[in-house]
From TrEMBL:
This is G-protein-signaling modulator 1. Belongs to the GPSM family. The keyword Cell membrane applies. InterPro entries: GPSM, TPR-like_helical_dom_sf, TPR_rpt. Signal peptide: none annotated. It is found in: Cell membrane; Cytoplasm. The gene is Gpsm1. One of its GO terms (cellular component) is plasma membrane. Gene3D superfamilies: Tetratricopeptide repeat domain. TPR repeats lie at residues 150-183. PANTHER family: G-PROTEIN-SIGNALING MODULATOR 1 (PTHR45954:SF2), LD33695P (PTHR45954). It comes from Spheniscus mendiculus (Galapagos penguin). The keyword Glycoprotein does not apply.
């Protein structure tokens, strides 16, 4: 500020916002991220503007999750404050998405789609969540990003459960399982087995459910996860 470096001030404000978010000081974080946004717009800095929009979305997303943790409920059954916070997150992600499309930044589009999928899932809009996660999946495949692909399969599985499409969920969870083994991520592999166990219970295929729950148990024991 002293030397009148507006771009530097914008970046510093953005960094402060992200740090405050991690500290759980969400309202202060929004103020700093908004400063980043205002200066970026004033400077005609589209990349900075896109980043600021994404960061504000992240702050509201984190705040929404933080508020909903205190009330362990299924997605969609949310108090008004939580709903409004997640809707704000979604709006900022939408604005970010249209800007990164304009900029032709595919990787940033992937991130926006993933986060839009997650916020819509928490809001209980499962069909919308699925549409966003499918977009996320396509971009992950484009980039050969196996970890993001794995997350998308997992999220698609979760959303289909709430629509009562258990057979489709099982297929997505199997893909999650396959990729977690490729990535040698045992904790995620265990989680996928657990999800498959529950899904086959819902499908009333108890033999298969037992099989997956046993696999989950074995990995949990290997990892010493009490």
């Amino acid at each position: 500020r002293t030397i009148g470096d507006r771009v530097g001030e914008a970046k510093a404000s953005g960094n402060l916002g992200n740090t405050l978010k991690i500290l759980g000081q969400f309202d202060e974080a929004v103020v700093c991220c908004q400063r980043h946004l205002d200066i970026s717009q004033e400077q005609g800095d589209k990349v900075g503007e896109a980043r600021a929009l994404y960061n504000i979305g992240n702050v509201y997303h984190a705040k929404g999750k933080h508020l909903s943790w205190n009330m362990a409920q299924d997605p969609g059954y949310l108090p008004q404050e939580v709903k409004e916070t997640l809707q704000k997150a979604s709006e900022y992600y939408e604005r970010n998405l249209s800007l990164v499309k304009e900029l032709g930044d595919r990787a940033a589009q992937g991130r926006a789609y993933g986060n839009l999928g997650n916020t819509q899932y928490l809001l209980g809009n499962f069909s919308e969540a699925i549409a966003f996660h499918k977009e996320r999946l396509a971009i992950a495949k484009e980039f050969g990003d196996k970890a993001a692909e794995r997350r998308a399969y997992s999220n698609l599985g979760n959303a289909h459960i709430f629509l009562g499409r258990f057979d489709i969920s099982a297929e997505y969870y199997k893909k999650t399982l396959q990729l977690s083994r490729q990535l040698k991520d045992q904790a995620v592999e265990a989680q996928a087995c657990y999800s498959l166990g529950n899904t086959y219970t819902l499908l009333q295929d108890y033999e298969r459910a037992i099989e997956y729950h046993l696999k989950h148990l074995v990995i949990a024991q290997e990892l010493g996860d009490r």
